[in-house]
Amino acid sequence: MDKFYHIVTYGCQMNVHESEKIAGILSELGYKSCPCMEDADIVVFNTCCIRENAENHAYGNIGMLKKLKAKKRDMIIAVGGCLTQQIKKADDLHEKFPYVDIIFGTHNLNKLKDYIEEKRKRKKVLIEIEECDGTVSEGDKPFRTSYPNAWVNITYGCNNFCSYCIVPYVRGRERSRKSENIIKEVRSLVAEGYKEITLLGQNVNSYGNYGADIPFYELLDKVAKIEGDFRLRFMTSHPKDFSEELAKVIASNRKICHCVHLPVQSGSDSVLAAMNRRYTSSDYLKKVDILRKYVPDCAITTDIIVGFPGETELDFNDTLELVKKVDFASAFTFVYSRRDGTVAAKMENQIPEEICKRRIMELVELVNQQTRKHSAKFVGQTVNVLCEDYDGKRGMYQGRNEYGRMVYFKGECDLTGQFVNVRVEEANGIALIGKTV
Ligand code: SAH
Ligand code: SF4
Ligand code: F3S
Predict the structure, then answer these.
(1) For ligand 1, which residues put their CB under 6 angstroms from it?
(2) What distance in angstroms lies between residue 355's CA and the mean position of ligand 2's atoms?
(3) How far is 133 from 136, CA to CA, in rounded Å?
């Protein structure tokens, strides 16, 4: 009889790709994917802890499984990812949800097969969290679920220790894969028909500093020179490591999308210093100028945090000013969330919730204005879209242009995985709507 798995993923693209690796392990064990938790023989929660609401979201969903587990006693529930990797969180989780069978961390995902086999033999709960031993994961066999896009890790971990951020504590020290392994992986993905490759790392620009043989701009250049019909993206770039050489490489090869995610976090120099970002707002603006000098049409997107401890009205205004100056194509905006174990968690002057709420609303309003303006620029233009999927609700295909804008359009036959030219007729917030030409 067939056995089924269901994976619930929270958090960043890194986690989305790691869920594909978990799916690969489960497929090797003979499980097949199923869309409903109720039908699954094993449910895996791949968690995130970047902000409190990401944690609460996972807790809520794991809690809802209690009734199902009481009915389906043989169902295995496993929880892994960044949440469990935090100090003491695995034990807390076990206390809160004693019916969870396997708790694993970010550094032992590739042992999940052994844990499941052991769990099937012995009924005991398995709590297995390991510390980072510096290993660079190779030879994973992900079960990819996002054709025509494929994610490729180039670095793991983070050494930046931004004072608000939990990632360095749960993902370990930064380490890079060897360039030849990355190039080999991309070559085979392109040969398999993947049309968009995204190189992944917490800070791709520092690839080369920790164990790699070449700097990031050289890696990007080499990957872009791989033969075949594909687009290349990378994320995330830390502004302090964004170099002129990198801007030149982006400009030199049309396979590299003119779209760079460059998280600024704040426009205030004192907040940036307290965040340990190691650049000032004018350093950031210089990087933007360099990028626009070589790639004038580049869509620059960002992440911004409001309500960092000690953020004054003046600091917040500096952020608004910087957003106006850069004119971001779009931005992810967050209210600061206190994370135990980080340096900022111990800072005095945590900002009250009402102030954070007002600031985020003001910022979102400004960002939305800019996003709408950037979308409106495409109306009347023909854009090249990589068709990703069919959106049943809208009755339209969907895909992105090279600037990362979602485009919806009608099509006669299955266009998934094809590059299509679409004439944009309408802009709707962050999305564009048009017709194939
Ligand atoms: N490594 C990437 C992304 C890290 S997480 C980078 O450095 O850009 C994605 C975003 O979450 C960050 O850019 C930051 O804006 C936000 N973030 C991280 N920790 C946070 C916290 N404690 N509270 C609110 N937002 C946070
Ligand atoms: Fe977190 Fe900073 Fe590392 Fe990004 S660079 S993961 S924000 S510590
Ligand atoms: Fe979340 Fe971990 Fe990514 S904390 S944002 S899943 S690296």
Answers:
(1) 50-51, 164-165, 167, 202-203, 236, 238, 263, 265, 303, 305, 334, 336-337, 339
(2) 25
(3) 9
Q: Does the structural domain 3-128 have CATH classification 3.40.50.12160?
A: yes
Of 98-107, 144-153, 208-217, 240-249, the least confident: 208-217
CA distance 306 to 266: 8
| Residue 136: C-alpha distances to residues 209, 232, 236, 248 (Å) | 14, 23, 19, 29
Please indicate whether residue 82, judged by its CB atom, sits closer than 6 Å to ligand 3: yes
Protein residue whose Cα sits closest to atom 7 of ligand 3: 167
pTM: 0.96
Segment 95-124 mean pLDDT: 94
State the distance from the centre of ligand 3 to the C-alpha of 154, rounded, in angstroms.
16
Burial class (CB in 10 A: 0-12, 13-18, 19+), 396: middle
Nearest to 390 by CA among 142, 143, 151, 148: 148
Q: Which numeric CATH code is attached to 382-436? A: 2.40.50.140
Q: What is the pLDDT of residues 395-409, one digit of tens each?
A: 999 999 999 999 999
Contact 137, 101 (CB under 8 A): no
Query: 43 with 75: CB under 8 angstroms?
Result: yes
Calpha distance 234→207 (Å, rounded): 12
Instruction: Tell me, rounded to whole angstroms, the distance of Cα 78 from its chain centroid.
Output: 22
Query: Which residue, by CA, sits nearest to atom 1 of ligand 3?
Result: 48
Residue 104, burial from CB neighbour count under 10 angstroms (0-12, 13-18, 19+)? buried
Q: Which CATH architecture has domain 149-375?
A: Alpha-Beta Horseshoe (3.80)
Question: What is the DSSP secondary structure assignment for residue 157, as one 8-state letter?
Answer: S
pLDDT at 18 over 90: yes
